[in-house]
Amino acid sequence: MAPVMTSQDLQAWVRSRLSLVDAALTAHVEGMPAQLPQSGAEYRRLWQRLGEQFAGGKNLRPALTLAAYSGLGGDNADAVVPVAASMEMLHTAMLVHDDILDHDEVRRGRPNVAGTRRAELAARRLPPAQLDDHVMTAALLSGDLALSSTYDMIARASLPAHHRLAALDLVTRAIRATIAGELLDMCGDLSSMEDADALTVAELKTATYSFVVPLLAGATIAGADPTMIAHLERIGTALGLSFQLVDDDLGVFGDPDVTGKTNLSDLRAGKRTELMRIAHVQADPLQRAILDRHVGDPALTDAGAAHVRQVLIDTGARDATLKLARRHARQAKRIASERVPAPLSGYLTSVVDMLDGRPS
Length: 360
Fold this sequence. Notes:
Helices cover 74% and strands 1% of the residues. It is an all-alpha fold.
């Protein structure tokens, strides 16, 4: 009789396969340019910039796919690794495109695709508009390469056809949900901060592609039944909402040396988060004046940001947001403990604990 796998065994199995995921991603981005030998140096450089974006990530999404697969009885690493790698490729595509929308050129403490391209062209002394066009082109097309590669990696996986199709359908769902969430997010500045629907944005833009789809991809190709799929969907949604609420807090209160990004950009952009919505609802006139003066100011200084942070604390908005994040985290843990078999249940509860207290 085969030994029973513990949650620690599952964690070790996932860690060991993440190196295979990294290798699959590297092999993909290094091998693709050769398929178009007439494409030229810039095309090869585009793939190189894309490959550089994988460094420094948490590998959360491929880890969830691997864990759901093995934790529910899957035993063919060759089959699941390309699908797990595709989840990280999808994440990279989303980050590249999200940085375009947010006008960010730094990711994980270093230049992203756009920032790298701007640095490459700095010595050319191009007119600002032309330089911006080249930067945008590099970022947009790199994100498109990553999206197409997400499908490509699954299509090439050694899976039965119906499992490949199911995984491809999940990727399509993730992309469409994220687009809907991005659109709601971008259009948020057309309405008041109090009317922001930040939780719906978080579910569409973050929870679906970062947690629900990776879990369901692994579970589906392991042969999970519809009931288990439903439980994992609920866990993924709750975990994704908790993750985003904490992420919004880190975007304002986080240490840039730890998070790898500035804690001013969300405030300068006037980002419609649940944290900011609660603050506006609960602010008195003087506090509201501070928020109106500084939030959304593209020239916001550290001093102005400090005033905003104090309002977020004094109104109770920060405490309320973090309390809501913990509530969603507890929900994810409860469902995992009650509805998911070991060792996957233990693995998922450890993920909840890790993300709930993360510094970045």
